[in-house]
Amino acid sequence: MFYLNLKIFYKNHCSLSTHIFSLILFCPLIIFLSFSSFNYADAHFSHLAHINAGGFGISEKYYVNEQTDPEEPIPNQLAQIQFSIQDRNGQDVHNITALVEVYASNGTRLSVFPWTKLDIGDFSVPFIFPKSGMYQVVVSVLNDGASTSQIVNTIPPSRPLLNDNTGCSCERGVFNVAVSNTFGSIFLLLLYVAVFGAVTVIGSVLIWMYWSRRKNPLFSDTSKYDSLKYFVLIFALAASVVHLAVYPEHGALRVEYSIFLLSASGIQLAYGLMYILLIFSDDNSVDNRLKKSDKLLVTKQYYKKSVILNLFGLIGSLVLILLYVYAITFPPPLSPNSRPEDVDLSGIIDKALEVIMVIGILVLMRYERRRYLYTFRTSKLKKF
Fold first, then answer.
1. In which domain, by residue range, is 279 found?
2. What tens digit of pLDDT does each residue of 284-343 get?
3. What strands lie across the sheet with 109-120, from one edge to the other?
4. In angstroms, rounded to a whole number, what is the distance separating the alpha carbons of residues 160 and 112?
């Protein structure tokens, strides 16, 4: 009954779905370009860290984004404590005076970056964390109107209450940093287990569906090309998961990048779900006028659906691949950094999945064309 309902749903809604897909095909590009008219900045980091990163407001004027690089600092190795200070509207701030302090968990002050006048609110402070444990990083910003002539390059005494600004015409914020020899590796392991575990579960369910269909007498003559449909579906869902996993890293550069990646992930997921419905509708029994014994026979309605969906996946995948190639060759549009994107493992995996998808879709389109021409030549019914 569930299988029958899926076939009926797909048959009744395919035309509407194809119009919707034609509209959302270029959604990532449209969203990406539509934000270009806004002149505001996010945290200008090279990437957005998953851990040891955060943001908080200090006073009604400033918002501080803060993270470490590497995002999992290792004891006795040099790290950078990065800051991007903006106003409450997300605009860059200029000509501010800031102070940075690093405290151990017992309240002992370990290091001080003295009061310094900065041309812009994006800066970093080098520091070597001496051992594993928790640390507090305190950033202070001098209030407007306060005299800077006598405070620049000075170091104030430490404070028992880290966010206390008594006697200081400034605003203070506290940021926690966790330092460990193994936490970063464990975090990355769990992240990859979660990503690839989801793909594995989805793939296992699809493989089970495929073998269940093979056992059905109506589909006993399933060809090798039908197996390829399942692989294309799995690769589409896997690419969607990878996009979902990496989108937070790009939010530090521009919020539009995260929106673009989320849109790409959602569209690939929708494409995969539509492909599931297409697989269920690949039935020589949809039109009882066709012989069930001949697997190569196909209805015109199914052929039109497969062409539209395959073109959607082909064009969408090619657009994403070309955009990635452009981003690692030239500085991407809207990027605050005048350099190309770094080539990383997640990008290689995602593009490899999409390249395989493109090859699989091209093979499937050729196969579906041959099926339809065979049906047209051999069937006594010239219209379906």
1. 2-38+184-378
2. 444 444 555 555 667 777 888 888 989 999 999 999 999 999 988 888 877 766 778 878
3. 109-120, 94-104, 133-142, 170-179
4. 15
